[in-house]
Amino acid sequence: MEKLYYQDPYLKRITCTVTHVSHTDKTTEVCTDRTIFYPESGGQPGDRGTLGQYRVIDTRKADDGDSILILDPSSQIKEGDVLELVLDWDHRYKFMVIHAAQHMLSGLLFTMFGIGTVAVHQGEEYLTIETDRSAIDANVIDELVLAANDKIRENHSIIYHEMSHKDAEALGLRRSIKVEGDVRIVEIKDVDRIACGGVHVARTGEIGVIFCLGHEQIRGHVRLYFSCGQQALDALLSGNKAIQSLNRTFSCRTDEIESKVAELFFALNEAKASASGAMRRLALMEVQCNIGSDGLCIMECAQGSDLQNYAQAVTEFEDIAMLVTCPDNGRTKWLIALKGGFEKIDFNVLLRPLLAEINAKGGGRSPVFQGVAACDDKEKLKVFTDKFKALVLN
To answer: Which of 32, 63, 189, 298 has the fewest CB atoms within 10 Å, i.e. the most exposed one?
Structure first.
């Protein structure tokens, strides 16, 4: 198979001859005499596009390195067909940009900071580089991004060299060579040099812009997330629109947004604390209004109520036997409190016959027990309530 994507990565369409076709239940796999479709390899996704009238959904790598075009199983293609092969150029070019950006970032990480790359992922939304470090200072990431964008503006050429494995090893590359035989070296002039079988843009200026989305620790290594090319430009435009909206909302400058948001969160937390206090006081008032002279209190509260407010209200009473139920989207939350003179009742003895009435589960520690019942039937809940009352008072 003639691999034209190596001769000219910018070829978008060619005419080719089908040399092999095989069918499975899920796909039709096609090989051609020549191709511009790069197969998934080295973290770079396989190309997609069309072969004649048929859609190519992916390109995979055969054992011998050739490209296998993956088509729908209903594709009616025969060996010997001469068809036009057309790339989904937007998809291909995006990953040419991302792959070049990855080489540049990994190269700069190594030459500037001595940080190695152990794994990469070229995704639809972002590029990730997993490093050999367990921690990386934020200043290092900032310096890396600034240096990468400098290299973009300098518009370094990206070139290829074919050489023997021995000659490639003598170059002292930042990463060991993973293939046997002759090696393809990708060089970003004055930036990086590495063995790679992927396809890339011709100059760093085509990358456009790079910025770091963030980082995390995984498997003891720091993983860095980047956006580059059109993805980065789209994200920057979207972010700028959001900033402008916040400027208008808060009537402030961009450098004031962070403090304005902090003030808003402080006010929100204060309001939540105030509301929580009010709900606890309201729950206490409800219990006070519903508790009888015998210490029995049975209530049904509104859906969405927090039963913890009623549990806290129990602390204000010396003697109380309380049952609170709360509808919960087809279920029923329940809370039982047995305090003071009622603590002599063994809840574990009470549990089985009582909760069986409404298929309820739960538990707790004296004096408060709670759980959920897979039941919202009013008649069954009334039997549950009446049985609790009878068991407590007897």
So the answer is: 63
